[in-house]
Amino acid sequence: SQLLENKVCIVTGAAGINGIGLRTAKLFYEHGANIVITDVNEQACDEVRALFEAGRCLVMVSNVTSKEDCQKVADAVVEKFGRIDVLVNNAGITQPVKFDEIQPQDYDKILDVNLRGMLYMSQAVTPQMKHQASGSIVNTSSVSAQRGGGIFGGPHYSAAKAGMLGLGKAMARELGAYGIRVNSVTPGLIATDITGGKLDDAMKQKILEGIPLNRLGTPEDVAKAFLFLASDLSGYITGATIDVNGGMHIH
Ligand code: NAD
Question: Where is the signal peptide (predicted)?
Answer without folding.
Answer: none
